[in-house]
Design a protein that fits this description.
The protein is α/β, with parallel strands linked by helices. It contains twelve helices and 17 strands. An eight-stranded mixed beta sheet has the order 4-1-9-10-11-12-13-14, with helices on both faces. A four-stranded mixed beta sheet has the order 3-2-7-8. A three-stranded mixed beta sheet has the order 15-16-17. Strand 12 and strand 13 form a beta hairpin.
Length: 345
């Protein structure tokens, strides 16, 4: 019997050109062809963690679009809900690698992905996927692409005819909002069941990164997850009727692992995939945060947007590890290890 995806991730996926060496674009002779997109990254990360997932979106009738579908299908992602747009091209971004970090240059105006709209939900393939999914994953990127894409996000968040969870990753991209009001994101965030946002993103969009203040600004989601990069992640569940007004009493904080970072791109999407996989598994908040950290760490130590998660047995051990054992875990390109004790070798 066919197993339908447990999670459906909806948004734009683009072709990517990655330079073979650091330097200004005008001095780079060779680029490697890849793909990238926040929602597709999450779908791919979920599949790597054993959660069947689909990516739904639109690509152009071109080689870039065919490459996206081929690569995601090859990674085990269900692409049956992908639409090919014959009149618009697949979006593209080009990475410019510097010695102190990377800059992404986007070429997505008028792309097939920017033409997403509520009509997507009327397609039989998409209806079929959504009818059985336990989770729908969205991001603030899609809301910024076009009026139609914003309407699609609003429909999925506001017109709930299904019982599944809806997660929303802020994924703040200032360049996409230069002529739009980022205040539009606040009601979208508040309408989701699970909200994921970085501390720096929260300060830029909501004016604060304090978890308690964010909970006051966004009272309705079941859980807010605030990520502070290499330091920690905090899960703030919606207080119950008997929990009182002190939200500190229900927050769960989990420190990040010590990672020898190779490339930060994709780590946020990997964290989201890990956290959501834990949610779908029925794990507690601490285990969900840890699974997010593990997935992010595996991506931080590779070039590109995807890092293979550690073996399942190691994952289960670390999810239940004592706090000192968790804190002693290190991650590098060589794998997962343990920090030596002081005075040791």
């Amino acid at each position: 019997m066919e197993r339908l995806p447990e999670a459906v991730c909806i948004g734009e996926t683009m072709a990517a050109l990655l330079p073979d060496r650091p330097g200004p674009l005008e001095d780079v002779d060779t680029f490697r062809h890849s793909i990238g997109g926040a929602e597709a990254n999450v779908a791919r990360g979920l599949v790597a963690l054993g959660v069947p997932a689909a990516w739904v979106g639109q690509v152009g009738d071109d080689g870039f679009g065919r490459r996206i579908v081929r690569d995601l299908t090859g990674a085990g992602v269900d692409t049956s809900g992908v639409l090919t747009d014959p009149g618009r091209p697949t979006g593209l971004y080009v990475k410019e690698a510097g010695r102190s970090g990377s800059v992404l240059h986007y070429y997505r105006a008028g792309s097939a992905g920017s033409a997403l709209g509520p009509g997507l939900l009327d397609r039989p393939q998409v209806t079929r996927l959504l009818s059985r999914a336990d989770l729908v994953h969205l991001s603030g990127i899609t809301a910024a692409l076009s009026d139609g894409a914003l309407d699609l996000v609003r429909t999925l968040l506001y017109d709930r005819t299904r019982t599944q969870l809806v997660s929303f990753d802020l994924n703040w991209r200032p360049a996409l909002w230069w002529d739009a009001d980022p205040g539009l994101l606040v009601p979208l965030l508040n309408a989701a069941d699970i909200v994921l946002l970085g501390a720096d993103e929260a300060r830029a969009v909501l004016g604060t990164s304090d978890p308690a203040e964010l909970r006051e600004l966004l009272p309705d989601p079941e859980t807010l997850v605030v990520k502070d990069d290499a330091h920690h992640a905090i899960a703030v569940p919606r207080p119950g009727p008997d929990s009182g007004s002190d939200s500190d009493s229900v927050m769960v904080t989990e420190p990040a692992l010590r990672v020898d970072t190779v490339e930060p791109v994709g780590a946020g999407d990997a964290f989201a995939a890990g956290y959501l996989a834990g949610t779908l598994r029925g794990d507690g908040l601490r285990q969900c945060l840890r699974l997010g950290h593990l997935a992010a760490a595996a991506t931080l130590v590779v070039h590109g947007d995807h890092g293979p998660p550690p073996p399942a047995a190691l994952v289960e051990t670390l999810l239940d590890a004592a706090p000192d054992e968790w804190a002693a875990t290190t991650v590098s390109a060589a794998g997962f290890g343990t920090r030596p004790e002081k005075g040791g070798r």
